[in-house]
Amino acid sequence: MSVPDPALLMVCVAGVAGGLVALWRGLVRYRSATLVAGLSTSRIATLAAGEVRVTGTVEVAEVLLRSPLQDRECVWYRSKVEVSGRNGGTTFHEERGIGFRLRDATGTIRVFPRGARLDVPDRFDERTGLLGDLPVGLAPRQVASVANEPPLDHDAAVAALLTVHPPLPAEDLPGLGDSFGERGSRRFIEARLEPGDVVTIVGAARPFGQLEDPAAADALDGSLDPLGALEDPAIAADIEAARAAGTLTTPEEAWGNAAIPGFGIGRPVREPELDPAAQRPVLASAAEAAAIETTFDLEPDLLVLASAPDAPLLVAWGAPAEVTARDRGAFLVGLLGAALAIVSALAGAALLSGG
Question: Are 132 and 95 in contact (CB under 8 A)?
Answer without folding.
Answer: no
